[in-house]
Prior knowledge:
This protein is of the alpha+beta class. It folds into four domains: 1-47 and 314-384, no CATH class; 64-129; 132-200, no CATH class; 219-307. The protein is built from five helices and 23 strands. A seven-stranded mixed β-sheet has the order 1-14-10-11-12-13-9, with helices on one face. The protein has a seven-stranded antiparallel β-sheet with strand order 7-2-3-6-5-4-8, with no helix packed on it. Helix 1 packs across helix 2 (21-40) and helix 2 crosses helix 4. It starts with a helix and ends in a 26-residue tail after the last helix. Residues 374-384 have low confidence and may be disordered.
Amino acid sequence: MLTLADLMTHLVVQTGSPLAGFHEAKVRTAVMDAWNRLFCVKTDWKWFHRLGFLQIYAAQTTGTIAFDLATRTVTLTDATFPSDAEDMHIRLGNAWYPIYRRTSSTTVTMYPDQHPAEDLAAGTTYHLQQIIYPLPVEVGPIVQMVNPSQNLTMLQLNLMETLELSEAFGSFTQPTTYSLISDPKHPDRWCVWVPSVFTEDDVLHYLYVQRRPARLVFREDRGLVSLSSGVATFSDAICKPSWEGCVLRISENDEAPTGNWGTVPVADVEYNSMDMQEMKVTEYLTTTTVRVSNTTSTLTSAPFVLSSHVDVKPGSMETLMQRLAEDEYGMRPVSNHMEGITSQRRVRQALAEAATEDALGCRTVSPLLPFWYRSLSDLAGSVS
Length: 384
């Protein structure tokens, strides 16, 4: 698996400069920009089409409520509010209101600017459910969303259309429409807004295009790690939620592990890709533990390296990432002049090869190469 640390090693080898100080900052910037640029290429990358699942739950309607405008408090009778009520909305009349805080098992408070305009008497009916669902951080554009229980493709609407169909007129059925929104409660990710009143639990399927993670881990190797029963336990409290999806390499000897690309800790390239185990971090648990994809191996107090996974197809797409990183890095000193690490011709060639390999079975409406690539001049001098 390709990682950010691998790409940084590649640039260090190409430039012949150690990874330190200003040069490290330039290498990091080049790698980040190259990854962003890959998603901007106007090619329908089949590799980045992924399938996701969204669990939805039926609305709670048990009991009745009363609303006090002066305190913005909703009081529930003959039922209780779930512990995650703050992630839900309550439907009163034809309007949905987000819940600000769960103050007890039978009371919640509303936001100062989002609540009914007057008191609601005891005995008022309600619907309580989650209508905004945060998606994983890697989810970009949604290509298609399907409700399999109804055997239909859900229609993506703008906010006004969703309001008109699902709120103003009321919709008490399994969802048929949705909108994509951003929510301050869930930064750096898209959320699906489905304001229908759900009549039963269901699972929605969606096809999406992967995007670059918002929070990147370039390299983490402090301390040692032990592995047992699919849980990695670190000697230092360094684990973070942003580790989910990262590649964890654990050495089977006393040397730091590397991928096939090696590593450059000081000046010389070091390799330890044979005596190591490679796995994905699947879940953040605590500041010292994470769940990993390897559930069978056992290791004790071993050196490790963790870095964000650059999830590209092995082969030509990896080569394309190298060329894009070289191109973003720009010029390097050679003898008494500056020279580009790569050329636009090499970038175009890598893009064509990667797009051709990826296009098998992939529908595309645009040429393999963006039109603006052909208009770029070659700035690399003698580099071919």
